[in-house]
Amino acid sequence: MNKTTHYNTGMNTRQPSPWTFFTNHSHVLFYLATHPDLPLREVASAIGITERAVQKIISDLAGNGIITKVRVGRSNKYTINRHMPLRHPLEAHRSIGDILTVICKEDSI
Question: Is the full-model pTM beyond 0.85?
């Protein structure tokens, strides 16, 4: 039996899945672009994932040269390397900065 979902008619036979176009890695990057000084606890809360997950994502992003982490007193400040190309071959002709320009508010980045 094929379950069909009619999103526009209200005749849903099941709930739409909660997926989004961007990954948690992207969400962390977008948030850091506009809030480079916030504690990871606040980043996690804003995105809706655990602080440990944000720490892992930060490690991934820093390890791949996408962000730079600088210790300032007792906290960290994150700088995004906007010139870095996107990683997937279908997107590699674009940079991190290209995506940030489209997604983040212009006055915030």
Answer: no
Structural domain contains residue 14: no
Q: Which domain holds residue 79?
A: 24-108
Kindly list the distances between the CA atom of residue 23 and the CA atoms of 8, 42, 57, 90, in Å, as whole numbers in the listed order.
26, 18, 10, 16
Q: Are 23 and 17 in contact (CB under 8 A)?
A: no
pLDDT tens track, the chain, 109 positions:
445 444 455 555 677 778 889 999 999 999 999 999 999 999 999 999 999 999 999 999 999 999 999 999 999 999 999 999 999 999 999 999 999 999 997 655 5
Whether residue 79 lies inside any domain: the answer is yes
Q: How many domains does the chain have?
A: 1
